[in-house]
Design a protein that fits this description.
four-stranded parallel sheet, elongated, disordered N terminus, homodimer, 12 strands, disordered C terminus, 13 helices, DNA-binding, alpha/beta
DNA sequence: GTTGAGTGCTTTAACGATAAAGCATCTCGA
DNA sequence: TCGAGATGCTTTATCGTTAAAGCACTCAAC
């Protein structure tokens, strides 16, 4: 029964089984700790597996178990530019951590070949390369998201998707957060002529953060002096917004940026115009993905727990995959205001080292 | 022969074949455009596949073809902190682009469970989850890299690995690049009392960039006034280096940082100490992964084509996997000096908008 | 002393795709 | 007219794993 000297192929369960003198089935059961296998055989099989360096074939397993042992992280190629590198790394870290805990691989899917008709990520799942997907920050108008959710495949979204009631999602309350940070500028720092530099308004995040700004301004009864400029979450657009406002002669004393990148760009521009931050104009950012701590003056911002969101979203995804879950749901995480120098809360000297 | 109403499982080749009235084999050959199948049957099979939304099972294929259809991008968890988010996103983008061109999935592997004895990424490949791996920026002392290369599995490294002569790698000449940018400070801007803030010296990148700095300083005959401080590629360490130097009363007029993050930190610290950049102290960074363009003053730096490196490394990996390749090799890409404000090449006003 | 329930393995079958070999049927040259 | 070859599919086997059923054998109970 000995087979000819094995070709340069890898070690399979059969090799382990032969070494012990049992069938592959028995070896499989032994490694899975089945009660139907004697302790002695289990011992022997485990020993043989270890000594041969046996690692189960993922393809064999996937085929037999109808389970890929992988989850996909989908990055619509548009939003790769809209959101920053830091954001995706935080998300990737969170997804990886959760996946590792479940002995699962992480597949990153970046393309979305519209040409094919079937979205690339739907193919990923229909081909059973992944058992489920995490999808983040697509444009509101992206109907691939709707289709994916509607397809019934396990999907968890990161962010807010009010137009997709059937979706399972994890996010933060951007409206409340933006309201709160705007209110901070008004009440704590006495600012009353505010500007909001919004994110792209075809993304829910952009819409919600603007809504929060507007509601806070309205609540304070100063909506006549509020103003909104649309940006694209990029540094340049923050700088451009400032340049435009200054050129227009608009008089303002506070700015709420929809993210830190734009705030950073705005900060540079304000400096270039010789405007003192926070004295003349107090500014706040949003996200706290790393940049805000390092600018000078450091940026006061709203911390968004991106990594944790991703972790929880992935945990949720495993529940869906395992069928442990109960219908649509939305989980909301808390954001934390991080007071720094740019709004006037701390002085430069008081910044963390 | 009709089977009972299919359970809620996905569409397989058998469904397609039954719809057309041929065997799964014929359907397979039709979809693979075999010359042994008539044009009419091919047409019918393709039509049926399209109408049913058939997508081949990756597990079935992987098992039969002994090919996972995926490559792994390995991120040693230590270097995730050593190198920045931007770097990995550039690498991920490059790897994805090349993988997409080969209809291949990208697996991101972050853990390295030393506990198991077998490195996690060796498991990934032995389990045939991936056909090969891209590995970047591990510490010189990481013997898992050596083992992985020695194991004979297809691996391409990004960076320089002089201690691994058998490796296939893609990188830039850090020594020459660092020499060149240091020389720029000396010859073009007449600086003669230089400091190098090095990266971690257990990483080849840190070692090489220091070597380039030292050789340039030696070539200019000013080595007595050269000084090296070790950092860790993080912003804070750049700032700490400056603080230390200033506190020590050391007199210098130029700084070569081993990456932009540290240069950024240094810049902030210099500003805090009221030191004019570039007038009093000219500084240069390294990498140009995004940050350098946006600081004020903008950072002169050496552009490292990370995304292209990753793309080419992945192309090379496919050659290895397909057996088209010829032994070990190292491909070197060109770096480009990007003159900006921090060394004195441009004035603030002349910066790109 | 036969039945019944364990115990511990082997046999069988299946997951989905696809090379390789097999077998009809048709076509053509000698 | 008859084999050779081409044509177009079917049969068979395999990749690695594992659930389920099967089959010897032991031991206890009635």
């Amino acid at each position: 029964m000995a087979r000819s000297p094995r070709a340069r192929t890898s070690i399979t369960l059969r090799d382990v089984a032969e070494l012990v003198g049992v069938t592959p089935s028995a070896a499989s059961m032994a490694l899975l700790d089945s009660p139907r296998i004697s302790a002695k055989t289990k011992e022997a099989v485990r020993g043989a597996a270890a000594s041969l360096g046996y690692v189960p074939s993922s393809a064999g397993r996937a085929l037999r178990n109808q389970r890929a042992g992988a989850v996909a992280l989908i990055v619509p190629n548009t939003s790769q530019h809209v959101f920053g590198h830091s954001y995706f790394m935080h998300v990737l870290t969170g997804v990886s951590a959760a996946a590792n805990a479940h002995d699962t691989q992480v597949l990153v899917s970046t393309s979305s070949d519209a040409a094919n008709g079937v979205a690339a990520y739907e193919r990923v799942m229909r081909s059973k390369s992944a058992d489920g997907a995490i999808l983040t920050s697509a444009a509101v108008t992206d109907l691939n998201v709707e289709r994916l959710v509607a397809s019934g495949l396990p999907v968890v979204l990161i962010g807010n998707f009010p137009h997709l009631p059937d979706a399972v999602s994890v996010g933060v309350d951007d409206v409340a957060a933006s309201h709160s940070i705007t209110k901070h500028l008004i009440e704590r720092h006495g600012r009353s002529r505010l500007v909001h530099v919004a994110g792209p308004l075809d993304h829910q995040t952009g819409i919600d953060r603007r809504a929060g700004f507007e509601s806070a301004v309205a609540a304070a009864g100063i909506e006549d002096s509020g103003r909104v400029v649309e940006g694209d979450f990029g540094e340049e657009s923050g700088a451009a917004a400032v340049d435009e406002l200054v050129a227009s002669g608009f008089d303002f004393d506070g700015m709420v940026f929809a993210n830190d990148d734009m705030a950073f760009g705005g900060l540079q521009a304000l400096r270039r115009h010789g405007i003192d931050v926070p004295r003349s104009i107090a500014i706040v950012g949003f996200d706290d993905f790393g940049l805000s701590r390092a600018t000078s003056p450091s940026l006061s911002t709203m911390h968004v727990p991106a990594e944790r969101m991703a972790y929880l979203a992935t945990e949720r995804l495993f529940e869906l995959i395992d069928g442990k879950s109960t219908g649509p749901s939305h989980r909301e995480l808390d954001v934390t205001f991080i007071p720094r120098t740019s709004c006037g809360c701390t002085t430069r000297g008081a910044d963390p080292p």
